[in-house]
User: Which sequence fits this backbone?
């Protein structure tokens, strides 16, 4: 678990501008946490504090068993950094080193890689889909392949936490989807905690379990992905959500709120004709106001119902659909 308590950060020479203002939050273990905000919101500063790439002025930060990372000595800081892998917007691969040597780079800062290290680096190459690329150089790779190398490098020290700082922002849509799928698979396989920073709500919707929305150095909204999408309160959050085609304010202005139901269904039932069967069996008509299938094949839907409201709700719940009110 990672906890920040009243953390403040101000850059020297920035006048009255504060990069982070009394940040208090917790990142629970075993989840993918998305942090979203526009440029200058403070999201990259926040994650750079966790491995002491930046220091903070006030407050405290706990990362796993390190209860106050600001007070760590040099050796403890080194041990903490080994538990954190970083994937950056720019891959930062060394052009004169081969793929396998780039993956081993974090180890070479402290010692000579062993045969076991090389074996694990080769295994990571296989996991990121680059088995035959170990002797190539960065200039011989595509942008997506270079990021895959960066991900493998971030895992070479067996970290507990993987921090991703906008790693897909320079990639095309298809490559972005592939990288997000890879990160989710690796997070599960390696039991990683993941903090993923982005300015793209489509990325958040694709990968995050929980979401933190930042603006001007502050956390303005935070919660599970479902709550952020369908129960957002802050204008900045609502603006991000509109980018994925969901405008709840417009929907509730157009339709009677009492007639709207929010449905959530997992991948096990996404192909089942539940609505069609329900309309036949209950002799009802429903209108689909909004629907979305996520990359992991689960989805959300907003429907408008005109009668037999409770019967519809009971029917859907009996077929493993999660039913809630839109507002």
Assistant:
């Amino acid at each position: 678990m990672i906890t920040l308590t009243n953390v403040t950060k101000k850059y020297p020479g920035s006048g009255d501008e504060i990069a982070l203002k009394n940040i208090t939050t917790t990142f629970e273990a075993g989840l993918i946490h998305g942090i979203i905000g526009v440029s200058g919101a403070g999201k990259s500063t926040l994650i750079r504090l966790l491995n002491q790439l930046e220091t903070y002025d006030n407050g405290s930060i706990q990362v796993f068993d390190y209860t106050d990372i600001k007070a760590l000595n040099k050796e403890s800081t080194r041990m903490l950094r080994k538990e954190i892998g970083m994937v950056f917007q720019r891959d930062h691969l060394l052009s004169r080193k081969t793929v396998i040597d780039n993956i081993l780079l974090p180890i070479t800062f402290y010692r000579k890689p062993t045969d076991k290290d090389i074996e694990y680096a080769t295994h990571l190459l296989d996991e990121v889909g680059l088995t035959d690329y170990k002797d190539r150089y960065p200039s011989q790779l595509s942008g997506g392949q270079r990021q895959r190398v960066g991900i493998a490098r971030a895992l070479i020290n067996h970290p507990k936490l993987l921090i991703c700082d906008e790693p897909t922002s320079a990639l095309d849509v298809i490559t972005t989807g592939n990288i997000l799928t890879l990160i989710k698979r690796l997070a599960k396989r390696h039991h990683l905690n993941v903090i993923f920073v982005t300015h793209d709500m489509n990325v958040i919707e694709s990968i995050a379990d929980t979401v933190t929305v930042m603006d001007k150095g502050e956390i303005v909204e935070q919660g599970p992905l479902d709550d952020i999408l369908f129960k957002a309160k802050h204008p900045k959050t609502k603006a991000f959500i509109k980018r994925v085609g969901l405008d709840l304010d417009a929907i509730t202005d157009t339709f009677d709120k009492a007639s709207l139901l929010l449905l959530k269904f997992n991948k096990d039932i996404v192909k089942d004709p539940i609505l069609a069967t329900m309309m036949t069996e209950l002799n009802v008509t429903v209108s689909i106001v909004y629907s979305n299938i996520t990359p992991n094949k689960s989805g959300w839907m907003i429907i408008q119902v005109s009668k037999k409201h409770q019967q519809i709700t009971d029917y859907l719940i009996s077929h493993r659909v999660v039913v809630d009110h839109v507002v």
Summary: The chain has a mean pLDDT of 90. The radius of gyration is 23 Å. The first strand starts at residue 2 and ends at 9. The first helix runs from residue 43 to 50.
